[in-house]
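Example 3.
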Amino acid sequence: MAKVLVVDDSSTVRNEVSSFLSSNGIDVDTAVDGVDGLAKIQRDPNLKLVICDVNMPNMDGLTMVEKVKALGKTIPIIMLTTESNPSMKQRGKDAGVKGWIVKPFNGSAAIEGIKKLIS
Amino acid sequence: MDPINHRSLTTILTQSFAETLAVISKQERVSINLVERNLIEAQEFKSVICSIAASTFKMNMLLHYSNADAVINKFFDTINSEIRGDKKTQYQDYISELVNNLCGAANRILGYAGFSSGMSTPATLHISNSTKHMEIIAPDSEVHIGCFLDGEPLFFGSLYLFINQGFENNLTLKIPELAVESEASGELEFF
C-alpha cells in the first residue's frame, strides 16, 4: 500500500490530513517538524509522497526539502501551508517541490492530485 | 481613523473569516457578524495572536476564545474534524491553527490587492483582556467580528492596523469588497 508522510507541527493538521488519507485507503505516517520528517524519509523506503508544512520549529519545510534533494532522494513533496507568496513558491520550485496546497486542507479538492502522485 | 482603511480592514477580516469557515465548518449552523469591541471585553477570553508585516504597515489578528467545556463541545460540534486525544489540548492546537489560517487568508487578500507582506506564526497571549492591551499600543484602525453557532457566540476575531511611522498620511489600503475569491484553498497546484 502507498504510504504518505505528513509533516506538520500542528497536531490538528496531522490528524485531519491523516484521517482523510486513511479514509481513502492510503497508509500514513506523521512527523512533527523538518528534522523528524527528514529522518523518516531517510529510513522508510515505502514512502511514496510527503505532504509538508512550511513554517515549523527546529527545521522548516523548505529547508527539509532542500536537504532531501541534497541526499539525492526523488520522493515527491508537496507543501501544505498558509503561505502563498510568489517568492516562497519559487524557493519551493527551485528545491524540487512538486506542488503547493494553501491551508486550510480541503481533502476532496486535493485527493485526485495526491492519488496521481502516489500511483 | 481613515474611512477607506477602516472599510478595507473590515473587508479583510470578514473575507478571511468567510473563506476559512467555508472550508472548516458546518456552514449551515455558523454565522459571522461584525461586533463592537465591548462585546469581547464583557467576557473572559484567552487570545491567540498572529501578525502581518509590510513595509508601510503592520496588522495584528487576534482570536478570542473561551476555555469553558460547553464552548469547546460546541466548537467541535461545528467543525468538520475528528477529535483525537485530549479535547482541551486538541482545542488549543486547533485555535492556533485556525488563527494561522485566518491570518494566511488575510495575507493573501493583501497580496491580491498588490501589497507585499509576510506573516508570523501564532502565539498564545498569557494575559486577559487582550483588547485593552492592544488599545495601549494605539492602533490606527480596528475591526471585530464574532462567529456564532445557532446564534450563540463560539469565538471572536479582531484585526488591528498600525501604520508605520512616516506613512501616517499617505497609506491607503484599497481592498475591493468581495473582489477576492479564495485562492482555491485546499486545492493542489502542481509545479
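The domain at 3-118 of chain A is CATH 3.40.50.2300 (Rossmann fold). The mean pLDDT of chain A is 94.
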